[in-house]
Amino acid sequence: MADANIFLVGLMGAGKTTVGRALARERGLAFFDSDHEIVARCGVSIPTIFEIEGEAGFRRRESCIIDELTQRCGIVLATGGGAVLDADNRARLKSRGTVVYLHAQPQELWLRTRHDRNRPLLQTADPLRKLEELYAVRHPLYLETAHIVLETGRQSVMSLVAKLQRLLDERAAAAHKSA
Q1: pLDDT, mean of each 10-residue run, the chain (179 residues)
Q2: How many domains does one find in the chain?
Q3: Cα distance between the two ends of the chain
Q4: CA-based torsion, 41, 43, 48, 53: positive or negative
Q5: pTM (two decimals)
Q6: Where in the sequence is the domain holding 61, given as residue range(s)?
Q7: Which CATH number does the domain housing residue 149 bear?
C-alpha cells in the first residue's frame, strides 16, 4: 500500500509544502510537513533547534519524524530539504511511498527564499552560493531517491498539482499493468 503515500523532496523553496498541501487536498489525503511536525513537537523554531543542538541534532529529530510519518498510509509528506542526506531516510522514503522530486535551479530558489529568515542554512553572506553548494550535494541524492522528477519553474501551484496528478496516475497505471 506504499503507493498510497506521496513524499515530496527537493531543496528549500522548491514548493514542497505548498504543492503538497494542494495535492493532498485534491487527492483526499492527509498532509504532513516534517519541519512543521518537528517545530510542533519541540515547541521552538527550526533556527532555535539549530542554535541549541546544531544541524546534527536537528537531523536526528528529522529522521525520527520521517520514520514515524512514512509508516502511515494515505499521506502526502513534504520533507525538509536535507532529509535525503541520511541514507536511512532515503531508503524509507523510496520503499514506503512514491517520491516526487520538485526540481528547481538554485537561482530560482534564491528568488523564492531570499526574504525568508526561517531558513538557518541561508543565514550567510552569500545565500545564492550556499544554495548552489547545497544543490551540488543534494541533487544527485534527490534523483537517486525519486520515482518522479517534476520541474517546478514558474508554473502556478495548481498547474504543478495537475501535472503531478497525471504523472502519479500514469505511474500507478504502469505498476498495475506489470503486476
Answers
A1: 80 92 96 96 91 92 97 96 96 97 91 67 75 94 97 89 95 83
A2: 1
A3: 13
A4: negative
A5: 0.92
A6: 2-178
A7: 3.40.50.300
